[in-house]
Design a protein that fits this description.
Number of strands: 10
Organism: Siminovitchia fordii
Protein name: ABC transporter ATP-binding protein
Structural class: alpha/beta
Radius of gyration: 19 Å
Strand content: 15-25%
InterPro entries: AAA+_ATPase, ABC_AA/LPS_Transport, ABC_transporter-like_ATP-bd, BCA_ABC_TP_C, P-loop_NTPase
Bound molecules: adenosine-5'-triphosphate
Largest sheet: 6 strands, mixed
Keywords: ATP-binding, Nucleotide-binding, Transport
GO molecular function, one term: ATP binding
Distance between the termini: 31 Å
Length: about 260
């Protein structure tokens, strides 16, 4: 690949007491790529995400993003640097409308926040209008702009997932991390979400995602990183991973690990 990596994870390690949740993991993600992280339950995928997004500090190793080291920075600093994420459990603000939820993502990139917006200064008004327009733009992208003025809490689950992606994208990040985006979606909703991700990628967004749904992983990833017991055991294109014996053994090899 010609360009510089957008994300560079080097020897990343996290131990909890005696448990090595993530051990010496390396991988790169280039601009515009969709990279999946897969592995059996408890392999260390969420811990890896938490270290990249500043939720946890690594025990050792480094994370570079956009040519700067972000290891151990606070989550808001990492968001400012251009990484946003969605969580395994929905994190929709239930007491807001759909468009207000997305506007909260836009506010990360505008000068004023929700607190200062209480003063209704001209700049604030202008920015509110701008935030509204940007939020509507992202709701259109994910196909739920007709629901903009509904209470977020009444949206069906699949639409709440789309809302989260719109909110993440509205902060104009360079990279979006998705933690099990397909969980709980029916096949039609999954394929809608796949299209949204592919569309955003074609416009230059990069994605790193954890997912158990292999059809999605194989269908949209440029590359797949496989971890097992905290260690990277394989990395490659979907076709390479599909045939990798270590990967097959990790998923099917032991009784207590569910095949996914
Ligand atoms: N805060 C913590 N304290 C102690 N151990 C932890 C903590 N968080 C994770 N672990 C352990 O680290 C290992 C990796 O967990 P992690 O949640 O990262 O796995 P995962 O691959 O995301 O699993 P899943 O697919 O089930 O979400 C597990 O053995 C887990 O029990």
């Amino acid at each position: 690949m010609m360009s510089n990596p957008l994300l560079e994870v080097k020897s990343l390690t996290k131990s909890f007491g005696g448990v090595m949740a993530v051990c010496d993991v390396d991988f790169l993600l280039y601009p515009g790529e969709i990279v999946a992280v897969i592995g059996p339950n408890g392999a260390g995928k969420t811990t890896l995400f938490n270290m990249i997004t500043g939720v946890m500090s690594p025990s050792s190793g480094t994370v570079n993003f956009n040519k700067k080291e972000i290891t151990g920075k606070r989550p808001f600093q990492i968001a400012e640097a251009g990484i946003t994420r969605t969580f395994q459990n929905l994190q929709v603000f239930e007491n807001m409308t759909v468009v207000e939820n997305v506007m909260s993502g836009v506010h990360c990139r505008l000068k004023t926040g929700f607190l200062t917006s209480g003063f209704r200064l001209p700049l604030v008004k202008r920015e509110e209008k701008q935030a509204y327009e940007i939020a509507m733009h992202y709701l259109e992208k994910v196909g739920i702009s007709d629901l903009a003025h509904e209470d977020a809490k009444v949206l069906p689950y699949g639409n709440q997932r789309l809302l989260e992606i719109a909110r993440a994208a509205a902060s104009s990040p360079k990279l979006i991390l998705l933690d099990e985006p397909m969980a709980g979606l029916n096949p039609q909703e999954s394929s809608q979400l796949v299209q949204v991700i592919q569309q955003m990628r074609s416009e230059g967004m990069s994605f790193l995602f954890v997912e158990h749904d292999m059809e999605t992983v194989m269908g949209i990833s440029d590359r797949i990183v496989v971890i097992d017991y905290g260690k990277k055991i394989a990395e490659g294109t979907p076709a390479e991973i599909y045939e990798n014996e270590k990967v097959i053994a990790a998923y099917l090899g032991t009784d207590e690990e569910e095949a996914i």
